[in-house]
DUF2637 domain-containing protein (Streptomyces rubrogriseus), 226 residues
Amino acid sequence: MAAPLQLTRTHRVLIGLVVFGAVIIAGIGFAGSYAAVRELALKKGFGNFSYVFPIGIDAGICVLLALDLLLTWIRIPFPLLRQTAWLLTAATIAFNGAAAWPDPLGVGMHGVIPILFVVSVEAARHAIGRIADITADKHMEGVRLTRWLLSPVPTFLLWRRMKLWELRSYEQVIKLEQERLVYRARLRSRFGRAWRRKAPVESLMPLRLARYGVPLAQTGPAGLAA
C-alpha cells in the first residue's frame, strides 16, 4: 500500500484559503438567491413556508455535497448524492432566473456564482478521490490525450486492457504493448506475412495470453523456441 500523502505547511495554508474562499462563494450565492426564491415562492402560493423554502434548498445542497465529499474520502462514494445536489443547484438557478426573466443578462448573472461553487466542489471531490485511491494503492493512471488523438483505435484497445485487468500503471501497459508488437514482428520475420496461419499454437499462445495481462517476458521465450 502506498504511503499516506504528507501535507506540508504550505499545503495546509492553501487548503485553508480554498475552503475559506469556497465558503464565501457559497454564502454570497445563497444570500443573493434567498430573496428571489422567496418572492417566487410567495407568488406560487407557498405562504409562510416561502420564508424557509430557500433555506431548505440551500441547506440540502450543502449537506448532500458535504456527505458526497466524506463518502468519497472514505472510498464508498454514492453518486446519487452529487447528482441530486447538482439537480437542486440547477433548480435554484432556474428559480433565480425566473425572477429576472425575460432579461437574458439578468438570467445569466444569476448563474455565475453557482457555477463557481459547483466547479470548486468538483475540484475538491476530484482531489479527494485521487488521494483516497493513491493512499489505498488503487489509483489507475489514465492514457495520454495525445495518444488518443494520434492512434484512437489501438489506444482504445490498450485502455480496455487496462480497465479489464486492473493494470494501474500507464508505463507498465505501454511496456506490455511494446513487447507485444516486438513479439509480433519476430513472428512475422520468422514465418512470413501469413504468420498467423503458419506459426504453431505454442508460438501464438503468448500473444493470446498477453490479452489477459500476462507479460510476454514470461511466455515469449518459450513461444519463440517452439
